[in-house]
Amino acid sequence: MYELIVQSHFDAAHFLRDYPGKCANVHGHTWQVELAVGGTQLDSLGILVDFYQLKTQLNKVCDSLDHRMINEQEPFLTQNPTAENLSRYFYESLTAWLKTAYPGNVVRYVRVWESPKASVRYIPEGAEGLIP
Fold this sequence. Notes:
By secondary structure, the chain is an alpha+beta fold. It has a single domain (2-130), classed as 6-pyruvoyl tetrahydropterin synthase/QueD (Tetrahydropterin Synthase, Chain A, 2-Layer Sandwich), CATH 3.30.479. Strands 1-2-3-4 form a four-stranded antiparallel β-sheet, with helices on one face. Helix content is 26%, strand content 31%. A hairpin with a 2-residue loop joins β3 and β4. The longest helix is centred in the C-terminal third of the chain and has 19 residues, at 83-101. One of its GO terms (biological process) is tRNA queuosine(34) biosynthetic process.
């Protein structure tokens, strides 16, 4: 299996509803996002997924949140914008695109950092044993 990894970032504010601490207050992060895509079939050029297209799609999702209050964006109007929920949001958004653009390939994981020392990785069910 091949694994392609791209990264992007965005700046946004959020707050955690019902959180018993400082994170209940509005605050911001420079969020880093890492996307890993896996597959086995290369095209005639020897490419699994075009890096340019992969970065473009990741940047589109990042841009939709950039310099915004995440709590005011779908699906975070009702869902807490935790790093965990953001990683799943990126996974779902990018999986939908990948299935159409590059069938047979999968999003292996999405990692979201809210700080240089704190990140979460969303791994789809069934892929746990495949991820080092």
